[in-house]
C-alpha cells in the first residue's frame, strides 16, 4: 500500500510565522502612531497662521485687536483635533492666539502672539516635549 505525500504546514512552521508577524507589528505600530500624530499637527499650525492673518487685517482696519471673533467665542468647529481661542491683553494692542488639542491630540497647546512669537507646550504625551521658541512638528521638541 502506497501512501501519498502529505502537503501543508507543520504547527512549528505556523508558530514561527506568527512570531515573526508579532515582532514586525510591535515595531511598526508605534511608528505608525507617531506618523498619525505628526499628521495632525499642521491642523493647528495652519489654522493659527490663518487666524493670525485675519486678526492682523482687522487691526489694520480698526487699530485694535478687540472684537476679533475668536477672542469673544472659542472656535470649536474649524478642527476635529484642536479648539482655537484668543486673548486680547491690556489696551487691545496685544493678543495671544491658542490652539488647544482635543480628542487624540489632547495635551498639545500651540500659541502665537502679535509679535509672531510661537510657543508649543506638550503635557502627558510620551516622546513629545514643548518648545518655547517655535511650533513643534516632531517628537522631542523638534521644530
Textual characterization of the structure:
The chain has 143 residues and is an alpha+beta fold. It has one domain (11-122). Helix content is 39%, strand content 19%. It has helices spanning 11-62, 69-72; strands at residues 82-89, 94-101, 108-113, 118-122. It has a four-stranded antiparallel sheet. A hairpin with a 6-residue loop joins strand 2 and strand 3 (108-113). The protein is rod-shaped and about 100 Å long. The mean pLDDT is 90.
The gist of it:
The protein has two helices and four strands.
Radius of gyration, taken over Cα atoms and rounded to an integer in Å: 25 Å
Structural class: alpha+beta
Average pLDDT taken over every residue: 90
Strand content: 15-25%
Q: Unreliable runs, pLDDT <50, ≥5 residues?
A: none
Number of helices, where a helix is a run of at least 4 consecutive DSSP H or I residues: 2
**What helical percentage do the residues reach?**
25-40%
> In this structure, how is the largest beta sheet organized?
4 strands, antiparallel
Sketch the topology as an H/E string, one letter per element: HHEEEE
* Overall spatial form: rod-shaped
Terminal Cα span: 75 Å
Give the strand tally: 4
Amino acid at each position: 500500500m502506497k501512501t501519498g505525500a502529505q502537503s501543508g504546514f507543520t504547527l512549528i512552521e505556523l508558530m514561527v510565522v506568527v512570531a515573526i508577524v508579532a515582532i514586525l507589528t510591535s515595531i511598526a505600530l508605534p511608528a505608525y502612531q507617531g506618523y498619525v500624530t505628526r499628521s495632525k499637527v499642521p491642523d493647528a499650525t495652519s489654522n493659527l497662521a490663518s487666524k493670525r492673518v485675519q486678526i492682523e487685517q482687522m487691526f489694520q482696519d480698526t487699530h485694535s485687536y478687540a472684537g476679533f471673533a475668536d477672542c469673544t467665542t472659542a472656535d470649536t468647529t474649524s478642527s476635529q483635533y484642536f479648539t482655537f481661542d484668543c486673548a486680547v491683553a491690556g489696551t487691545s494692542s496685544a493678543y495671544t492666539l491658542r490652539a488647544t488639542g482635543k480628542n487624540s491630540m489632547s495635551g498639545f497647546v500651540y500659541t502665537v502672539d502679535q509679535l509672531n512669537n510661537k510657543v508649543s507646550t506638550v503635557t502627558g504625551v510620551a516622546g513629545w516635549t514643548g518648545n518655547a521658541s517655535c511650533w513643534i512638528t516632531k517628537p522631542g521638541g523638534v521644530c
